[in-house]
Design a protein that fits this description.
The protein has helices at residues 5-14, 53-59, 80-84, 86-99, and strands at residues 21-26, 29-34, 37-43, 46-49, 65-67, 74-78. The protein is α+β, with helices and mostly antiparallel strands.
Amino acid sequence: MATSQSTTDFILDQLSSVPNVRVRKMFGEYALYCGDKVVALICDDQLFVKITPAGKAVVGDRYAEGIAYPRAKPSMLISASDLEDHERLCDLIRVTSAALPPPKSKKPKMRKTGRL
C-alpha cells in the first residue's frame, strides 16, 4: 500500500516549525529530510524515524520499533496519536537530526569522453 499525499501533507504541516524539513519521493514511498539528512521514512501511511538515543528519550515509554520495508533497519514507529502531538514530533525530528552524522559527500562521476 503506497502512502497517500494527504499523509505526507499532514506530517509536513505538523513539522512546519522545524526549518528545512521536506519529503522526497523514493521507491514509491517518501524520505523525510531535515536539512541534508534523512531522518525518517514515510511508508504505508506510517512514520518511521531513525533510532537515536536522543530520539528514544523524547519518545519515552511510547517507544516501539517497526520495519519500514523488507530488509530495512529497525526504526521508531510513530503512532497516530504521537503524530497529533505537534511539539513532541518537532522535538523528535530536531534531536534525531542533531544526533545523526552528516551525509557522506558524493564522489563526482567520471565523464565518458568517447576517446581511447
